[in-house]
């Protein structure tokens, strides 16, 4: 995507080079427009080097690519982000005041704009700033981020910090994603479950939850209301939460690696080595509930159930058998045989099978892009 990064004069501007680097690293094109004051906090050389383009900060400068840069930039861009947006700039933008490179560019921008305010907490709380924020938030092309709470540059603590760059980056992606899942509820399970042996030890697996999180993020970007169930919880806790969410969900995507068994007894005190009769120790296990199968049994016709299968051999056969056995609509097969796929990787390669016999290969790519491909296939 083509991003115009607009910078105004607040101390949080020191974080903007990191955002530009993130955007460029992900393959996006970046051009920068700033107020004069912004350049007191971050140098044009830094911005130019990282963005790969001259910085647009002086409306009357001879180096501008076009004499009407404030019109050509919005034409060029897919999205604009204003980081940080000071009280001054918010007030101007809300009222159509356009007297520098940043505000003239904003005024002509009809495509999505993400605004990340940052200022002293008392300024943020002022009626004038809150009015400007309310006005701007009503425009359909604007995503207004909240300020974060914490330590402020002026030494006080309060609500006025700019959101971290990864939150801003996420908001830019969300702003550009069509809301094809608006009004839909999606429940997603992700990561491993942990099954306690005693207060110190547990049984688990190597899943990290990256694929499930990528799916949750993409569903949220598409406008869905997402319930993500993951973390250090047991299969039984995951079962309860997922069953509850399923009652009102339209879609369930079960990416969690649920432990099939748990210790029959959970010891309340740490098991001591001396208490064992000999050098070998055995642990009795009992079966966990199968969340996917339970959802499949309680599935209404309009609900969509998507599962995962991680296999090491006879992959297709195992996946298809799970698809039928658990009454799923789609199953996403992961093979541990594939390089760059599986636990903890940033990439994945999967094959999807539907109950109606469709088959779709998704080649090796980032888990974020695999999440997009999975959603494009199942919806
Ligand atoms: N699953 C689940 N609850 C379980 C076990 C599995 O919800 N107790 C879900 C997984 O999240 C996945 C699908 O079922 O979406 C298949 O998981 P997998 O562990 O491959 O299936 P199992 O039936 O446990 O088969 P296996 O014998 O291969 O472990």
Helical content band = 25-40%
Which distinct ligands sit in these coordinates? cytidine-5'-triphosphate
Which sheet architecture does the biggest sheet show? 7 strands, mixed
State the secondary-structure class: alpha/beta
Radius of gyration: 26 Å
Strand content: 15-25%
Distance between the termini: 24 Å
How many individual β-strands?
Answer: 18
* Overall form: elongated
Tell me, rounded to a whole number, the average pLDDT.
95
Major sheet: order of its strands? 11-8-12-15-16-17-18
How many individual helices? 13
Summarize the entry for a quick read.
The protein has about 375 residues and is an alpha/beta fold. It has helices at about 15-25, 45-50, 70-75, 85-95, 100-105, 120-125, 125-135, 165-175, 210-220, 235-245, 290-295, 315-325, 365-379; strands at about 1-5, 30-35, 80-85, 115, 140-145, 150, 155-160, 185-190, 195, 200-205, 225-230, 250-255, 260-265, 285, 305-310, 330-335, 345-355, 360-365.
Write the SSE topology.
Elements: E1 2-7, H1 16-25, E2 29-34, H2 44-51, H3 69-76, E3 79-85, H4 87-94, H5 101-107, E4 113-117, H6 121-124, H7 127-137, E5 142-144, E6 148-151, E7 157-161, H8 165-176, E8 185-189, E9 195-196, E10 202-203, H9 210-221, E11 225-229, H10 235-246, E12 251-254, E13 261-263, E14 285-287, H11 291-297, E15 304-311, H12 315-325, E16 330-335, E17 347-354, E18 359-366, H13 367-378
Parallel strand pairs: 1-2, 1-3, 3-4, 4-5, 8-11, 8-12, 12-15, 15-16
Antiparallel strand pairs: 6-7, 9-10, 13-14, 16-17, 17-18
This protein binds cytidine-5'-triphosphate (CTP).
Residues 189, 235, 254, 256, 258, 260, 288, 290-292, 307-310, 322 line the site of cytidine-5'-triphosphate.
């Amino acid at each position: 995507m083509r991003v115009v990064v607009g910078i105004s004069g607040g101390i949080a501007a020191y974080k903007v080079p990191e955002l530009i680097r993130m955007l460029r690293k992900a393959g996006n094109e970046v051009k920068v427009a700033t107020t004069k004051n912004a350049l007191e906090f971050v140098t044009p050389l830094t911005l130019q080097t990282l963005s790969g383009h001259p910085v647009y900060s002086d409306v009357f400068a001879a180096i501008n690519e076009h004499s009407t840069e404030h019109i050509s930039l919005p034409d060029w861009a897919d999205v604009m982000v204003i980081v940080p947006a000071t009280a001054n700039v918010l007030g101007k933008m809300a009222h159509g005041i356009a007297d520098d490179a940043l505000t003239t560019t904003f005024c002509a921008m009809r495509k999505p704009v993400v605004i990340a305010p940052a200022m002293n907490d008392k300024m943020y709380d002022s009626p004038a700033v809150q009015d400007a924020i309310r006005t701007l938030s009503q425009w359909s092309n604007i995503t207004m981020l909240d300020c974060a709470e914490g330590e402020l540059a002026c030494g006080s603590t309060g609500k006025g910090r700019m959101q971290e760059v990864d939150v801003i980056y996420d908001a830019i992606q969300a702003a550009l994603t069509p809301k094809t899942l608006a009004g839909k509820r999606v429940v997603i399970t992700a990561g491993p479950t942990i099954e306690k042996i005693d207060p110190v030890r547990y049984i688990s697996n190597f899943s990290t939850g990256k694929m499930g999180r990528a799916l949750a993020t993409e569903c949220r970007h598409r406008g869905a209301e997402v319930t993500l169930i993951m973390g250090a919880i047991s299969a039984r806790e995951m079962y309860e939460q997922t069953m509850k969410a399923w009652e009102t969900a339209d879609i369930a995507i079960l990416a969690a690696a649920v432990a099939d068994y748990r210790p029959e007894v959970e010891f309340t005190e740490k098991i001591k080595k001396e208490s064992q009769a000999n050098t070998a120790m055995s642990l009795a296990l009992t079966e966990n509930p199968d969340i996917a199968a339970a959802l499949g049994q309680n599935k209404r016709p309009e609900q969509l159930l998507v599962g995962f299968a991680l296999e090491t051999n006879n992959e297709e056969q195992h996946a298809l058998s799970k698809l039928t056995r658990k009454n799923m609509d789609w199953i996403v097969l992961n093979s541990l045989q594939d390089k760059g796929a599986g636990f903890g990787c940033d990439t994945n390669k999967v094959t999807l099978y539907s109950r109606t016999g469709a088959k779709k290969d998704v080649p090796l790519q980032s888990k974020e892009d695999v999440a997009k491909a999975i959603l494009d296939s199942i919806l």
